[in-house]
Fold:
Amino acid sequence: MNLKKILLIATGGTIASRHTENGLSPQITGKELLSYIPEGKEFCRIDVLQPFSLDSTNVCWQQWLTLAKIIQEHYQQYDGFVICHGTDTMAYTAAALSYLIRNSLKPIAVTGAQRPIDLPDTDARTNLMDSVRFVSDDRAHDVCIVFGGLVIAGTRAKKERTKSYNAFSSINYPPVAVIQDRRIIFYIDDKDSCTGEVCFSDSLGPRVFLYRMIPGSDGTVLDALMDRYDALIIESFGVGGIPDYGDGSFREAIRKWTAAGRMVVMATQVPNEGSDMSVYEVGHAVKNEYNIPESYDMTLEAVITKTMWILGRTRERDRFRELFYTSINHDLLFLPE
Structure:
C-alpha cells in the first residue's frame, strides 16, 4: 500500500488550547495534536510544521500569506495539507487561501474544533481525523473546510454557531462532501474536470473597509475613510440598495470614492440567496450610475478576501471587475452578462 504523505500545519486555535487563568489560550503543539489521532498512520504519513500559535482572532492577512507561502514551498513534497486553525476566522482564512492558491489538484483542508483536543468531550479528534482522511482521498482537491462531518468549499463557509459542534454551514452552495462512519460521500466530485497548473499569489491589498448599514446611517462618515482605504465594501439591506434620507450623502460618498480611483463593492447583510441591485430602484439607479460590482451569491468572507487578492494584483477598475466576476473555487454561481 502506497501511503499518502500529508503535511499538518498547526496554527493554534481552540483545538490546541488549554485553560489558563485568563481563559483558553493556544498551548498544544502540532506534534501533540497528531498524537491524538494514532489511527491516521494506517493510511498516511504525516509531518508537522508550526509557523505560529495564535487565537484565530489574531489571524489576519499576514498569516494568510505565510500559510500560502508554506504550502507553495512544500507543494511538491506532499499529497495533501491539513491546517489546524481557530474557528472564529477560519472562514476568512479558507476563502483567502482559495484565492492565494488556485486550481490546486492537491487538497488543502482547514479544520479546528469548538473544544480543545485534550478534553474527554470534544469534537477536535473527529474533525482532525476527518481532515486527514479527506486529504488522503484521491478525489479531494482545492481548499476546503472540514468540520462537523461536512466538507465545505473554502469560499462557501460561514461560522453560524459559537458553541455547537456543527458550527459551519455551506452558503448558497452544497457541501463538497460529507464524512460518516469513516466514509467520504462526495456531492461535488469534479476533480477530473480541473485542468492547468496550480497558481500561487504572494500579495494582498489589505486596505479594505467593510461598512455595515443600519437604518438612518450617515453617509458622510465614509468621507473620513477614503484616504485610509483602497476599497469599500458596503453591507446593505436585502438584495442591495443605497438609502437616501434626504441628504444624498451615500450617493455623494460613492461618487467621491469612485472619482478618487477607489473600489466600491456592494454586498448584503442577508447570508442566503445573495444580492441583486437591479430589483429595486434604490439599488438599480446607483449601480447603473457608478457601475458598482456586487456580491451576488458570494459569502461576505469571500467578497472581502477576494477584494484583497485583486488589490494585490491590480488597481485598474475594469480589470478589478473582470477578476471579481471570475468564479474561483465555486465562489460565484451567478455570472453577470
Notes: The chain is about 25% helix and 25% strand. The radius of gyration is 21 Å. Helices lie at 30-35, 61-74, 90-100, 124-135, 249-259, 281-290, 300-311, 317-324.
